[in-house]
Amino acid sequence: MTLVELQKVLGERISIAVDESLDMDQRKDENILSQTISSLAKQMINNADIVLRTNKLVAEGKLKNSQIEKMVG
User: Fold this and answer.
1) Which of 30, 9, 8 is nearest to 19 (CA)?
2) How many Å separate Cα 45 from the centre of its chain?
3) Mind spelling out the 3-state secondary structure of the chain?
4) CA 45, 49, 51 angle in degrees (round to 5)?
5) Inter-residue contact 69 to 58 (CB < 8 Å)
6) pLDDT given at position 64
7) How is the chain split into domains, by residue range?
8) Which residues are CB-contacts of 27 (< 8 A; sequence separation ≥ 6)?
9) Mean pLDDT in order along the chain per 10 residues (73 residues)
10) Distance between CA atoms of 56 and 59, rounded to whole angstroms?
11) d(CA 71, CA 40)
């Protein structure tokens, strides 16, 4: 999943969260699902940030033969 696709999913979850046509049980179930998606989204965003930072350091030549370079390949 790309970050753009993730953004779309998060937008859909927000729409569901404010949907007043849902009864309390449906809203509760949807909120639990939204919390799970939010947690996964946060991890995806953090991972993307790590990749971007690593790519920047590699491009700047700052990771030659470092532990980080060995960990991320």
Assistant:
1) 30
2) 4
3) CCHHHHHHHHHHHHHHHCCCCCCHHHHHHHHHHHHHHHHHHHHHHHHHHHHHHHHHHHHCCCCCCCHHHHHHC
4) 115
5) yes
6) 77
7) 3-72
8) 19
9) 93 93 93 95 93 86 76 68
10) 5
11) 22
In the block, residue with structure tokens 């953090």: 46
Q: Are 22 and 30 in contact, with CB atoms under 8 Å apart?
A: yes
Structure tokens belonging to residue 48: 């993307």
pLDDT of residue 73: 64
pLDDT at 51: 85
Number of other residues whose CB lies within 10 A of the CB of residue 16: 15
Which pLDDT score is estimated for 61? 85
